[in-house]
UniProtKB/TrEMBL annotation:
Protein name from the UniProt record: CpsD/CapB family tyrosine-protein kinase
SUPFAM superfamilies: P-loop containing nucleoside triphosphate hydrolases
Signal peptide stretch: none
CDD domains: BY-kinase
GO molecular function list: kinase activity
CobQ/CobB/MinD/ParA nucleotide binding domain sequence ranges: 88-261
Keyword Nucleotide-binding: yes
Keywords: ATP-binding, Kinase, Nucleotide-binding, Transferase
Keyword Transferase: yes
Length: 273
């Protein structure tokens, strides 16, 4: 285990030092005048009341409905900040556990902190759904950025001043190969170098969809595992958590779709570290 932790730390350190040459000090004093490409030049998505309701988007402003996401935000951000980490993957054992819903709300909640620049990148290259949740069909897909066919600045969108979103509208041709490719690694490094986000969140496919995540996780600092209370078995959570822990640091497990006595559904979060 110690060897594994050392190997993960070394891989992370190598990625960081490669980036730090042109990304020396992060200035967190306001998002507008910071170095890097101009976030405000990206087209903005409007979230209509209908999109907000259908997409279960509840973290736009503080209050009761945002509280679970705000708690997840604070715990996740605290752990990542302590370690100097910027890249978080969100995955689950199987489909429909709520990864995309949680990734979007977590990103929105983080971006309510105006001095943070947050990116949410759709890395579900098999059955992307973030664009449906946001009711927006961009002209190109984020996988084309990873393939080097489209510039990030032509593809990305924003919500407000400090949340940038990259969507897929179509499935990539070879999702597993693309996810694990050197081209993807270079594209993500280039995005981080030229746009200088503080945090990059990756909405992944479920782990049972293929081996996409195996080498991809070398590109991130840590991961959250989302499980669905009534459909993910404890054995499955255990197997997936162990598998993830071989590949990156697991920040915690989010147990989503918990049914409470008043019949409402929400989630619980178990943090590590
Ligand atoms: N806490 C919740 N309570 C009730 N329904 C939820 C909750 N979280 C998400 N959902 C619903 O569950 C469905 C699946 O959610 P979502 O698309 O976020 O899951 P996913 O894990 O990203 O799915 P996929 O594996 O297909 O990518 C959606 O209809 C979403 O609105
Ligand atoms: Mg999803």
């Amino acid at each position: 285990m110690e060897k594994l932790e050392a190997a993960l730390a070394k891989a992370r350190e190598m990625r960081r030092s490669a980036l730090s040459a042109s990304h020396p000090v992060r200035d967190r004093t306001g998002v507008r005048d910071r170095p890097g490409n101009d976030w405000l030049a990206l087209p903005e998505i409007t979230l209509t009341p209908d999109i907000i309701t259908r997409g279960r988007i509840s973290a736009l402003s503080g209050g009761r409905d945002a509280t679970p996401y705000d708690l997840l935000r604070s715990r996740t951000y605290r752990l990542m900040k302590e370690k100097g980490w910027s890249r978080l993957a969100i995955t689950s054992p199987g489909t429909a556990c709520g990864k995309t819903t949680i990734a979007l709300n977590l990103a929105i909640s983080l971006a309510r902190q105006r001095d943070l620049r947050v990116m949410l990148l759709d890395l579900d290259l098999r059955r992307p759904s973030l664009h449906k949740m946001l009711g927006h069909v961009p002209e190109s897909s984020f996988h084309e950025v990873l393939e080097g066919r489209v510039a990030f600045g032509e593809q990305a969108l924003r919500i407000g001043a400090n949340l940038v979103i990259a969507l897929n509208t179509s499935k990539a041709q070879n999702p597993a190969e693309l996810m694990q490719s050197a081209a993807t690694r270079r594209a993500l490094d280039e995005i981080e170098r030229s746009w200088q986000p503080d945090l990059m969140l990756f909405d992944l496919a479920p782990m049972d969809a293929g081996d996409d995540y195996v080498n991809f996780l070398g590109n991130v600092d840590c991961a959250l595992l989302v499980a669905a209370a009534e459909s993910t078995t404890l054995a499955n959570i255990d197997i997936c958590e162990k598998e993830l822990a071989q590949l990156t640091d697991v920040l915690g497990i989010v147990l989503n779709k918990c049914r409470y006595s008043d019949d409402s559904v929400g989630y619980n979060y178990e943090a590590y570290g």
